[in-house]
Amino acid sequence: MKSEKLDISGVYTALVTPFSKDGASVDFKSLGTLIDQQLEAGVSGVVACGSTGEAVTLSDSEYVEVVRFAQERTRGKVPCVAGVSVSATARAVEMARVISELGCDGILVATPPYNKPSQQGIIAHFRAVKAATKLPLIGYNIPGRSGVAISPATLGALSQENLIVGVKESSSSVDALADTMTAIRPECQVVSGDDSLTLAVLAYGGVGVISASANVMPAEFVSLYQSWERGDTRQATKIQLEMLAKIRSLFMESNPVPAKTVLALRGVIAEPTVRLPLVPLSAETLKKVRSEFNV
Question: Among residues 140, 225, 260, 288, which one is catalytic?
Answer without folding.
Answer: 140
